[in-house]
Design goal:
Length: 407
């Protein structure tokens, strides 16, 4: 025999109990509905502005171009077979999240839509952000802890110190601003097309659009500086050699002309030999000068070749609508939470009426062991033994019954 216990849900009892507690349910829904409305209207509005640009891919031979095309089909990126650049478009999101890149955004001047805020981006993120009343306890607690807790990490900035932030050694406030800006910036790259999408989230629509446009320009400058850095360094080196060669050739030409004018009618062999030597030196410096002129032109062309061209797929625009969750959705979430909490309390108080405990008894039938199974001959013998045993029992009972009849 086996006993099992089951718990069943009585729907009619639940509805009956819910009907009886309708006033408490109404109060709970009204309370959480008011809380949801307060939360929905206290959350600051946020706006999102995005830009899309496609940088020119670095050049390569036909084989690498074919491999890049094949790699893009399987999602490995167009620059899979191109080793000319060390920074691929897939690394641009990490570049924009770096501390150096974000700190360079601190001096950017921003202006709000209503014109009441005009300051740099660092001051705006530090002092001009709206805070929900739900976050006020957290802010007050942080301010309270600052008074009694000394910060061991971060550089302490003295009053009146207007020096530029040092990305290597930031203060606590600067580090918080860096984290805040990094949270507002989202950069993604399509591996197949290498299209870069920059999205900025902010509490003001105009500032969101202006920061998105600034980030696009800063990223273009970064990519251009990286790709043309070596070419510009080579061009500057050749330009210095060109200036030196030009100065030496000009000096040699003037000395040769002056010597020729001074010894025009002289027929001495020594003078003629010195004149030829000066002419050869001038010619040598002229050859160097012409070669460097050609190399300088080639270096300038190399810089232009390495300078990437950007195709702006979508410019930054001021968003019209905010990106917050709908207030109706927030209200519905709070009403559902209130309904669930009311049901939990109702189950704790009247769970025995709603949840019915039932017991079932199940007969246990043991399975036969295959080794204990008997053949037909063995079964017949067992039946005969049983029958013989019953006959012996009848014989033993007959004397007892006869004695009982005599009495």
């Amino acid at each position: 025999m086996e006993k099992k216990k089951y718990i069943s849900f009585d729907l009619f009892a639940y509805l009956h109990r819910l009907k009886k507690s309708k006033w408490s349910l109404t109060v709970m829904l009204l309370l959480f509905g008011a809380l949801g409305v307060g939360v929905a209207f206290s959350i600051p509005k946020i706006y999102k502005s995005s830009v899309m640009l496609a940088p020119e891919s670095s050049g390569g031979n036909s084989l690498s171009s074919s491999l890049s095309s094949m790699a893009s089909l399987v999602g490995l990126g167009k620059n899979f077979a191109n080793n000319e650049d060390a920074i691929f478009p897939e690394i641009y999101p990490d570049v924009m999240q770096s501390t150096n890149f974000i700190v360079s955004m601190f001096p950017v001047q921003v202006e709000s839509k209503d014109g009441k805020i005009k300051c740099d981006y660092y001051t705006y993120m530090l002092k001009k952000q709206k805070i929900s009343w739900l976050d006020l306890p957290k802010v007050y607690f942080a301010e309270f802890m600052k008074k009694y807790k000394k910060e061991d990490v971060g550089r302490q900035k003295k009053d009146g110190d207007n020096s530029a932030p040092d990305p290597f050694y930031l203060t606590k406030e600067e580090d918080d601003v860096v984290k805040g800006i990094a949270g507002n910036i989202n950069c993604s790259v399509d591996k197949k097309t290498s299209v870069i999408t920059i999205e900025v989230t902010d509490q003001d629509p105009v500032i969101a659009a202006s920061i998105a446009d600034t980030l696009m320009n800063r990223l273009q400058v970064f990519i251009t500086d990286y790709r043309t850095k070596k070419a510009i360094r080579d061009r500057d080196y050749i330009s210095n050699l060109y200036d030196e060669a030009k100065a030496e050739y000009t000096k040699a030409r003037k000395e040769y002309a002056r010597f020729c004018d001074a010894n025009m009618d002289v027929i001495l062999q020594q003078v003629q030999s010195e004149m030829e030597e000066m002419e050869n030196d001038m010619q040598l410096k002229y050859n160097i000068y012409t070669q460097l002129t050609e190399q300088l032109q080639m270096a300038q062309a190399k810089v232009m070749e390495r300078t990437p061209v950007y195709t702006i797929v979508q410019n930054a625009s001021v968003p019209v609508k905010h990106s917050n969750k709908p207030k109706v959705l927030i209200l519905a979430i709070f009403l559902i939470i209130g309904f669930i909490l009311h049901n939990i309390g109702m189950f704790l108080r009247h769970g025995s009426e709603i949840l019915v405990h039932e017991k079932y008894v199940i007969d246990y039938i043991p399975q036969q062991n295959p080794q204990m199974m008997q053949t037909p001959v063995q079964e017949e013998k067992a039946v005969e033994k049983v029958v013989a045993g019953e006959e012996d029992d009848d014989k033993e009972e007959q004397p007892v019954s006869s004695e009982a009849s005599n009495e």
